[in-house]
Design goal:
202 residues; alpha/beta; six-stranded parallel sheet; three-stranded antiparallel sheet; 10 helices; globular
């Protein structure tokens, strides 16, 4: 038995195509962040359910939006019993796989997930180079001081360090800055990327 935690992103959707099917009924697949409140095939819910189906595993969603309206409403949501149980499971994740997003229109989060009152230019002005689990980091992998991070309904970045194996699957030269930031901030223990991105990160 074990817990496999998932982030969100186009890279993870592509990953599913190359995952070998199997029977792992003792395995729990859990989403580590909330999802979009409208349908899109690459929603966090869709990614978790497709991994779980492939492995005949249990599936757990974080049935909430990616962002609450305010930091206070996020705290109210997370204080509910159902979310306390969900986050206890997420914190007990054995292996996590996430992607990183940059601040360009290529980013699904920038395109579909950001609240209408927050712009990518505003985040860049606060020092952001991109996000992991919907939380924006600076070039050292530290969470930027912006309310968006306190509105995210996701595993907090500081808790990632307590997960035994965190796989960051992310590529493209456009993501070099945020991948380098994640490595500097020790937010991942395994990196899967492409050669051009790796050279740019180094």
């Amino acid at each position: 038995s074990g817990i496999f935690g998932l982030g969100w992103g186009g890279t993870l959707r592509e990953t599913i195509r190359h995952v070998r099917a199997g029977q792992y009924r003792e395995l729990a697949v859990t989403s580590m962040m909330g999802g979009l409140t409208y349908g899109i095939e690459i929603n966090t819910f869709e990614i978790a359910s497709r991994f779980a189906r492939l492995w005949q595993a249990q599936c757990h969603y974080l049935a909430a939006p990616i962002y609450a309206g305010t930091p206070q409403s996020r705290d109210t949501i997370l204080a509910q019993d159902v979310f306390e149980a969900a986050f206890a499971r997420i914190r007990a994740t054995d292996v996590a796989i996430l992607s990183a997003g940059d601040l360009s229109e290529r980013s699904l989060l920038v395109r579909y997930g950001l609240p209408s009152d927050v712009g990518d230019d505003e985040l860049a002005g606060a020092g952001a180079v991109g996000d992991l689990l919907g939380q924006f980091v600076d070039c050292d992998g530290q969470a930027i001081d912006h309310p968006i991070n306190r509105r995210a309904i996701a595993l907090p970045l500081e808790a990632l360090g307590r997960i035994p194996t965190v796989i960051l699957a992310s590529g493209g030269i456009n993501k070099a800055a945020v991948i380098a930031a994640a490595l500097r901030g020790k937010l991942a223990s395994v990196l899967i990327t492409d050669e051009a991105a790796a050279a740019a990160i180094l």
